[in-house]
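Recap from last week: sequence in, structure out.
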Amino acid sequence: MTNFCTGAQILSAVYTESVLVSVFESILLDLIDLPLQQALDKHQVKPAIFFNYLARDAHAKALFDAQTHCIARKLALETVDISDTEPDPARANVRIKARQWLASKYLPKEYGERIDVSVQTVDLTDALREARARRERVLHHSFTDAKQLTDVADNAGIQRGNATDLESVDAHDSIFD
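Predicted structure tokens:
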């Protein structure tokens, strides 16, 4: 077995890029069976060191992304296997949900929850046209009280309960008949 350097040795920048690559590749291989934190602990690499390496090396980032993609697919396939083979439905449900959750963290675009942010538009043009037509009929009706015209124009009469829109009053009265 190959001896790998520790996280402290990586920080000291004594080792060549090839040593860094071999430690990184070993961590990637361990990710197949271990969570990231355990793989890092196994090689005595701190998460900050690991993610700094990913940030500065585009090839390493691409390898890590490919590995997490493969892990997510593996988890998704395991859910099918569990549903086919697990005799206890409650246990199967827990195992499947755990893998689905983990797959959604590794590959959120494919396995994550989808949130619908579609916007529906409503055309109020006809309703506004009808309201304006009713308002015009009321305004041009022969009112003698100028106060009523002001109330109708600014809808204050409706808000105070003394509406002068005859259609609204008739509709309101017909409800109680």
